[in-house]
Amino acid sequence: xxxxxxxxxxxxxxxxxxxxxxxxxxxxxxxxxxxxxxxxxxxxxxxxxxxxxxxxxxxxxxxxxxxxxxxxxxxxxxxxxxxxxxxxxxxxxxxxxxxxxxxxxxxxxxxxxxxxxxxxxxxxxxxxxxxxxxxxxxxxxxxxxxxxxxxxxxxxxxxxxxxxxxxxxxxxxxxxxxxxxxxxxxxxxxxxxxxxxxxxxxxxxxxxxxxxxxxxxxxxxxxxxxxxxxxxxxxxxxxxxxxxxxxxxxxxxxxxxxxxxxxxxxxxxxxxxxxxxxxxxxxxxxxxxxxxxxxxxxxxxxxxxxxxxxxxxxxxxxxxxxxxxxxxxxxxxxxxxxxxxxxxxxxxxxxxxxxxxxxxxxxxxxxxxxxxxxxxxxxxxxxxxxxxxxxxxxxxxxxxxxxxxxxxxxxxxxxxxxxxxxxxxxxx
Length: 428
Known about the structure:
Blueprint: H1 3-25, E1 42-50, H2 57-76, E2 80-81, E3 84-94, H3 99-111, E4 116-119, H4 123-136, E5 140-142, E6 158-160, H5 165-177, E7 184-189, H6 193-208, E8 212-218, H7 227-235, E9 240-244, H8 247-259, E10 265-268, H9 276-281, E11 289-292, H10 302-312, H11 319-336, H12 341-344, E12 353-355, E13 358-360, E14 372-378, E15 384-391, E16 394-397
Parallel strand pairs: 1-3, 1-4, 4-5, 5-6, 7-8, 7-9, 9-10, 10-11
Antiparallel strand pairs: 2-3, 11-14, 12-13, 14-15, 15-16
Helix pairs in contact: 2-11, 3-4, 5-6
């Protein structure tokens, strides 16, 4: 190797070493106190399904609002589940109170892999839809479906926050036989799972009480003209007429009954236990009796009522029960520390919390424990008012909850120079 070549190689080597040194300096060692990156959050979709169009859309929207408020309140808590911050999102689907549409909606939500469903409103929709959710492993909880069949099939993903018709039927039947002094009763149902099922329970309870059933008539949930059925009922001279159906049919039926000169007192289940009846039946609505599978809206927690009214206005009926349905799902997720339906669904049976409608717990079938029933009467003001609460077969007169005590006015700030020695605080 000649001298010039040696010099050239030495220069190249020096440049290489310098470059290596620069690379090492470009990768400083991480600081010992550096914090690990925060875990990525997860968005969890809880669906609502119910009638958002059609004749009972006012009830479906009320339910949807209850779920929306629950989602808001759950997000306000900034929960961490499974080690990740959780944001809840609601999607809502219109089942049109139709079983066929309801099953289409159910399949759509199952395919979308929502975490859970709060719905549907009608028993006739909830029952077939729940089969689809159960097959997909998705929990479904209704705040209004009352037909016993819903929770009698052994499905482990099906729940409700209200009572059953085999509790509601005897409650309104006892009121018919007792307070209304019904000796001869006519029954009408709308051929739906809800209407027929409830009328069946009322009939059984009335017969057990030795009340005479003078006729049992059938109509549909789409009917508008009840004159033929009512004319037959009029010929039987009943003391009381019970209708199993929704307010969309109950209101017109009652109005037409008075036009035909029927003097009997009318009674309804929860489907027609709404202020909407006064709009549909006019003056004919005054005095009818009805039942609800749960406590009245005025008995919901003050926190819920204030928040709901500020955001959505007046509560129509079952919004507090749909709110608690959504909250039960969140509670199950917290208990399981997972948002995976396969993991948190079994924890639904272990849920126990105080919600808008009181203590929420479920039995082995998915029914609410210690469910209450309320009897209402329609007043001259076009508003239904609760008159009795029925629990475990025992009826007690309804009393309005005591208003929350006003917060005491803040005491004026004491002058520092005149401040007296502090005394021990009284024990609570």
